[in-house]
Amino acid sequence: MGKALIIGAGGVASVVVHKCCQNHEVFEEICIASRTKSKCDALKEKLDGGKTIIHTAQVDADNTQEVIDLIESFKPDLVINVALPYQDLTIMDACLATGVDYLDTANYEPKDTAKFEYKWQWEYKERFEQAGITAVLGCGFDPGVTGVFSAYAQKHYFDEIHYLDILDANAGDHGYPFATNFNPEINIREITAKGSYIENGNWVETEPLEIKKVYEFPEIGEKDMYLLHHEELESLALNLNGIKRIRFFMTFSQKYITHLNVLENVGMTSIEPIEYNGQQIQPLQFLKAVLPDPASLGPRTKGKTNIGCIMQGVKDGEPRNYYVYNVCDHEECYKEVGSQAISYTTGVPAMIGAMMVLTGKWKKPGVFNVEEFDPDPFMDALNKWGLPWQETFNPTLVD
Ligand code: NDP
Fold first, then answer.
1. Residue 341 above 90 pLDDT?
2. Do 311 and 164 contact (CB within 8 A), yes or no?
3. 16, 91, 105, 166: residue to mutate for ligand 1 pocket, most atoms within 8 A of CB
4. pLDDT of residue 245
5. pLDDT at position 34, please?
6. Which of 40-44, 177-181, 239-243, 313-317 has the lowest mean pLDDT?
């Protein structure tokens, strides 16, 4: 049916590639392109021989012209951006120049400011409309499936959703004293930033990890979770009817927090360049170099993740509560695609989002967050492609 150009060859890209190859009726031909071509070739070697035709290429996606040249030679129907958030705008520019649809899993973030928001990408809306092409923003799990879950609840179960809590729990154990489950630079920047949530249309800011709650997660048990700023809050605040408050919580063990505090206190999480032996280095980038590669955690990680949305609102004048979540097992993911659940829960929705665009179900000109599309075909696809969801109308609420 179609051709996809996949940019990036890291943890998430590896899952996207595996899933596209499983879904060969939709993804007839793919090109894996990244800064380090050997990683693309290694993926191709692992998966070659199936029905999806695989190409590889070297590309520096910070350079719009290089992406344009690659698009012009491969001629994809869609670009799946699973490189880093820093490349979002250059890749969107290349899609505009060539008239090709776009999908990513994380919103643009300037390299020198640890601040992520949608304003830069939303500014492309009119240009994408005029070009008649689609951009799907934030189509991983969170953001991504959390937005689809919210849209599904809004479509089927609520007239108004007043309170939304997004809960991201990882009970996986990789056996290292400290490691991050995805790109450490992105992950640590996210956690050491101030927290925030939306209340009555306004952002309320907290100190980093200031708000801690304890929650008993289905299939995982009791976990400490901390309020973080998260990018889907910004779009969901605009796209859900009657919303009064949206919060995002992520679980971290005490051991993780202790390591992070020490690293922060000694300056290792800073993004301010320092002079070292006559060279400018960014402490956080150096830390990334010494930490275990997230891709190496797969074979070691045991346990499950649970990510979902708890909503309180009204339907036909009656109050209603609803919790929809997915539980994913690290070892099962590794068995299936050779990656742990964090990459899996991001890569599967990216493949599904790309399938939605290629099959025309999510095809309209402009720049959209996932909750602006019909959630139903996506929800069906989650069950089919490895992320089955469960729901309850009687959840324990977060206080
Ligand atoms: P990795 O660091 O494992 O992989 C990133 C890949 O991008 C690497 O292959 C890297 O190449 C490549 N890359 C970096 N810069 C460039 C460039 N200038 N040109 C071409 N390729 C480049 O990250 P992950 O796979 O863990 O994450 C991928 C994306 O997914 C990130 O944007 C992350 O924020 C997002 N994400 C989203 C989640 C969600 O639920 N929505 C959850 C987890 C992640 P090289 O190998 O040379 O370094």
1. yes
2. yes
3. 105
4. 98
5. 98
6. 177-181
Distance from CA of residue 329 to its chain's centroid?
Answer: 18
Is 106 a residue whose pLDDT tops 70?
Answer: yes
Specify the pLDDT at position 114. 63
- Peptide linkage before 143 cis (omega within 30 of 0): yes
Nearest CA to ligand 1 atom 28: 82
Question: Which pair of structure tokens corresponds to residue 270?
Answer: 């800073």
Mutate to test the pocket of ligand 1, among 34, 91, 369 (most ligand atoms within 8 A of CB): 34
pLDDT digits (tens, 9 = 90+) for 170-181: 999 999 999 988
Q: Which CATH superfamily is domain 145-337 in?
A: Dihydrodipicolinate Reductase; domain 2 (3.30.360.10)
pLDDT at 191 over 90: no
- Nearest residue to 155 via CA among 397, 375, 308, 382: 375
Q: Which residues line ligand 1 (CB under 6 A)?
A: 7-13, 34-36, 39, 59-62, 82-85, 87, 105-106, 140-144, 182-183, 186, 294, 346
Does residue 129 have a pLDDT over 90? yes
**Interatomic CA distance for residues 11 and 8, integer angstroms:** 9
| Atom in ligand 1 nearest the alpha carbon of residue 85 | 32
Ligand 1: residue of 37, 69, 91, 183 to mutate (most ligand atoms within 8 A of CB) is 183
Please name the residue that has the structure tokens 């179609």: 2
Rounded to the nearest angstrom, the gap between the alpha carbon of residue 240 and the centroid of all alpha carbons in its chain is 20
Ligand 1 centroid to residue 87 C-alpha, Å: 9
> If you count them, how many residues does the chain have?
399
Burial of 152 (0-12, 13-18, 19+ CB in 10 A): buried
Return the closest-CA partner of residue 334 out of 308, 359, 363, 305. 305
84-98, 104-118, 293-307 — most confident range: 84-98
- Joined together, the tokens standing for residue 399 give 């206080």
pLDDT, position 224: 97
pLDDT, mean over the chain:
95
User: Hey, whose CA ends up nearest to atom 3 of ligand 1?
Assistant: 10
Amino acid at site 66 = E
Between CA 367 and CA 47 the distance in angstroms is 32
For the chain, what are the domain ranges?
145-337
DSSP conformation letters of 14-82: HHHHHHHHHTTTTEEEEEEEESSHHHHHHHHHHHTTSSSEEEEEE--TT-HHHHHHHHHHH--SEEEE-
